[in-house]
Amino acid sequence: MAEVVLRCEGLRKAYGTVVAIDDLGIEITEGETYGLLGPNGAGKTTAISMIVGILARDAGSVTIDGQPHDVHRTATKRLIGYVPQELALYPDLTGRENLHFFGRLHGLSGRELRRRGDEVLDVVGLSDRAGQRVRTYSGGMSRRLHIGVGLLNRPRLLVLDEPTVGVDPQSRNAILDNVRQLAGQGMAVLYTTHYMEEAERLCDRVGIIDSGRLRAEGTRRDLVTMLDREDEVELLADGDLAAAAQALAELAEVSAVDVREAGLRLLVAEAGPNLPQILATTGRAGVTVRSVQVREPNLESVFLHLTGKALRD
Amino acid sequence: MTSPQFRIRPRRIRTVFAIAGVQLRLLFRQRLSVFWVIVAPLLFVFVLGLQFGGGQPPRLAVVNEGNGLVAQRLVDALDADDRLTVIELVGADQLRTDVQRGRADAGLVIPAELDAVVSSGGQATVEYLARPSNPTAADLGVWVRAVISQQATLVRAAQVATGENAGTFRQNLDRTGTVEVPGVTVVADTVGTTPFPDGINPYALMAPSMLLLYVFLTSLTAALRVIETRRRGITRRMYATPTTAGTIVAGEALGRFGIALTQGLIVMAGSALLFGVDWGSPPAAAALLVLFCLVASGVAMLVGAVLRNEGPALGICLGLGLGLGAAGGAMVPLELLGGPARTVASFTPHAWAYQGFTELVRHGGGITDIAPQLGVLAGFAVVLFTLGTRWLRRGIVR
Ligand SMILES: Nc1ncnc2c1ncn2[C@@H]1O[C@H](COP(=O)(O)OP(=O)(O)OP(=O)(O)O)[C@@H](O)[C@H]1O
Ligand SMILES: [Mg+2]
C-alpha cells in the first residue's frame, strides 16, 4: 500500500455568512494525482489555502506525512510545494533571482541553492531565459516559472491551484506533462481546475466540489459509472430511417432510438463494442450511414447530474 | 538565560535578510529610480545651493542716477570685471528690494551729482548696500572698492592735466583713458536679516532639507512594493514556505529601513563629497539619520499595509511625502515659516529632524544639543513602526 501523504478531515471555513468550505475530507497517497474539480467560487482556493497552511481553518484537521499541520507549523510546510492561483512572482527580478529568493525561504543556500535553482529551470524549460526579468516572459513562461517555484524544496505534496488558467494549449500540455512526471517520481499532487478535460487526462482520482462541499469522489470510471448513463450514438444517414429504427430497437444493447431529420439517435449501454452490429443492422435496412458520432458521458455530465449546473459559466 | 521563543536562529536571520535584500534590489531595478534616488536629490542640493550664492559670480546691482562721463566709466569698469556680474537697475528702491530678496548679492548707488562734484575736484559718495553677514557680499565689496580706487587714480591724473591748462577736464580724462574720482568715499550699509551664519557653505543650507524630503519620498514610493507584494500573492506564498509571519514582517521592515537609510546616506555622502557639506558630529548625525529613517520606514509599512491598490496609493504617497516635507520645513526652510505654519510643522517628524540637522550643520552642535529632537523622533519611530508591523502582520495571518 502506498503511504498517505495528505489527509484532511472535516475542513470548514466560513467568511461571515458565506460557508466557503464545509466538511471537506480528502486523502492523497504517494504518486497519486488528485483533481479537485469545481466551478468558479466553489471553494477550491479556500480548501487549498487551509491545506497548505496559509489560511486558518474554522474546524477540521490536516496531516502531512502523518504529522499534524496548520498555519504555524514550519516543519510540515517544509514538505509542501505550493503553486498559487495568481502569479506570485517578482516581475522585476529575473527568473533565476525569483527561484533563489524562494529557495532561500526554504532554507537553501550557497551551492545547493544554485544547483537546485538550475535543476528547476531545466525541469520547467527556462534555462535559456533564466537571466531575464520575469516582466519580459510570455504568459506561459511565467506560469512555468511559477510552477518551478513550487518544486524547489522537492515537496512530498505538490499543490497546484488552477495552474493552466490563461495559458496557450502548447504551454498547457507542457505543464500537464510536467505534473504527470513529478507524480511519477512519487510526489502526491493536489490539483484544482475547472477544466474537465484536464481533470480527466491528468488525475488518478477526482473530487467534484460545488458550493463548498465535496459532491462525489473517485476515478473517472467510478464517477461515470455512478452516473448510470448510457452512451449516445448519433448517425447521419439517408434511406428508410423508420425501418432502420425498428430493426435497431430490437437489439438488446440499444435502449432507445429516435428518428431525426437527417438521421438517428440511439442510447446504447456501451457504444464501442456494439458499433459494428449497429452499422450492419442499418445497412440491412437499406440505410446509408454518412457519419457516426459517439458521446460517452464525461465528468461534465457527472457534474451536471450532481449539481444541476454546468461546470463553466 | 534566554527563553526558547526569543532565541535568535541563524536561519531566521538569513531569511530576514533575504526578504529585505530583495526590496533593496528592487529599488534600483527601475531605470528611473536611479535618477530619483541618486541624481535628483543631489541636483536639488546643487541648484538650491547656487541660489544661496555658490558657484556663480556674485551679482552687483547698480543704479546710475546721473548720466555723466565719470559715472558711466565707473559702471563700465565694474562691468568689465569678470569676478562679478553687473545688473543695471533704475531707482534705488528697486535695488534695495533686490538685495533684500537675494536677487543681487549687493547694490551700488551712484549719485547724479557724481560727475559735477568730481570734475570740480570735490569729494563724492557712492552707496554700497548688502545683506548683513553675506560672505559673497563682503568679497564683492572689496572688488568694488578696488575698481573705484583705480578709476579715482585716472580722474586725478586728468584733473592734474587740466590744472596745467593742457586742455579741458573732459579731454584729459579721455586721454588718460579713464575717469578719476578724487577720493570717492564708499558708504556701506546693510538691509534685511539673515537666518544663516557667516561663511557657511551654501550647499549645506539645503542639503538637510533634501535629505528629509527624499528619505520620505523614496520610502513612501517604495511602499508601493509592499502593496504589490501582497496583491500578487507573494506574501502568501512566502508564508507557505517554512517562514513564520514574524520573520516575513521583520524582513519587510528591514527592507523598508534599508531603503530609507540608503537614500539618506546617498544625500549625506553625495553632498559631502561633491559639495563639501559638513554634516557635523558623526554620532549625532548618524543618530538623527537612523531615527528619521525608522520613522519613514514605519510610515511606509503602515501605508503599504493599509492600502490595497498601487494606483490610489501612489497619489497618497506622493502627497504625504511632499506634504509632510512642505509642512515640516523641508521645502521652504523652517526658519521662513510664520507662526501658525510653525505650529503645524512641529507635528511633523521633518521639522524636528530639520532642527536637529540645522544645529549640527550650522552651529556645530553635538548629540546632547539635539537630545530633544532625538527624543521626539524616537517617539514618532516607536509609534509608527509598531503600527506598521502590527498591521502588516495582520494581513498575513488570516
Ligand atoms: N477573503 C474572502 N472574504 C470573503 N469571502 C471569500 C473570501 N475568499 C473567498 N471567499 C468566498 O468563498 C467562496 C469560495 O471562494 P474560492 O476562492 O475558494 O473559490 P474557487 O473555487 O477557488 O474559485 P475560482 O475558480 O474562481 O478560483 C466564494 O463564494 C468567495 O466569494
Ligand atoms: Mg480559486
From TrEMBL, chain A:
<keyword id="KW-0547">Nucleotide-binding</keyword>
<dbReference type="InterPro" id="IPR003593">
    <property type="entry name" value="AAA+_ATPase"/>
</dbReference>
<dbReference type="InterPro" id="IPR003439">
    <property type="entry name" value="ABC_transporter-like_ATP-bd"/>
</dbReference>
<dbReference type="GO" id="GO:0016887">
    <property type="term" value="F:ATP hydrolysis activity"/>
</dbReference>
<protein>
    <submittedName>
        <fullName>ABC transporter ATP-binding protein YfiL</fullName>
    </submittedName>
</protein>
<dbReference type="GO" id="GO:0005524">
    <property type="term" value="F:ATP binding"/>
</dbReference>
<dbReference type="Pfam" id="PF00005">
    <property type="entry name" value="ABC_tran"/>
</dbReference>
<dbReference type="InterPro" id="IPR027417">
    <property type="entry name" value="P-loop_NTPase"/>
</dbReference>
<feature type="domain" description="ABC transporter">
    <location>
        <begin position="6"/>
        <end position="236"/>
    </location>
</feature>
<keyword id="KW-0067">ATP-binding</keyword>
UniProtKB/TrEMBL annotation, chain B:
<dbReference type="Pfam" id="PF12698">
    <property type="entry name" value="ABC2_membrane_3"/>
</dbReference>
<dbReference type="GO" id="GO:0140359">
    <property type="term" value="F:ABC-type transporter activity"/>
</dbReference>
<keyword id="KW-1003">Cell membrane</keyword>
<dbReference type="InterPro" id="IPR013525">
    <property type="entry name" value="ABC2_TM"/>
</dbReference>
<feature type="transmembrane region" description="Helical">
    <location>
        <begin position="34"/>
        <end position="53"/>
    </location>
</feature>
<dbReference type="InterPro" id="IPR051449">
    <property type="entry name" value="ABC-2_transporter_component"/>
</dbReference>
<feature type="transmembrane region" description="Helical">
    <location>
        <begin position="257"/>
        <end position="277"/>
    </location>
</feature>
<feature type="transmembrane region" description="Helical">
    <location>
        <begin position="283"/>
        <end position="307"/>
    </location>
</feature>
<keyword id="KW-0812">Transmembrane</keyword>
<feature type="transmembrane region" description="Helical">
    <location>
        <begin position="370"/>
        <end position="392"/>
    </location>
</feature>
<keyword id="KW-0472">Membrane</keyword>
<dbReference type="GO" id="GO:0005886">
    <property type="term" value="C:plasma membrane"/>
</dbReference>
<feature type="domain" description="ABC-2 type transporter transmembrane">
    <location>
        <begin position="33"/>
        <end position="388"/>
    </location>
</feature>
<feature type="transmembrane region" description="Helical">
    <location>
        <begin position="314"/>
        <end position="334"/>
    </location>
</feature>
<protein>
    <submittedName>
        <fullName>Transport permease YfiM</fullName>
    </submittedName>
</protein>
<keyword id="KW-1133">Transmembrane helix</keyword>
<feature type="transmembrane region" description="Helical">
    <location>
        <begin position="203"/>
        <end position="227"/>
    </location>
</feature>
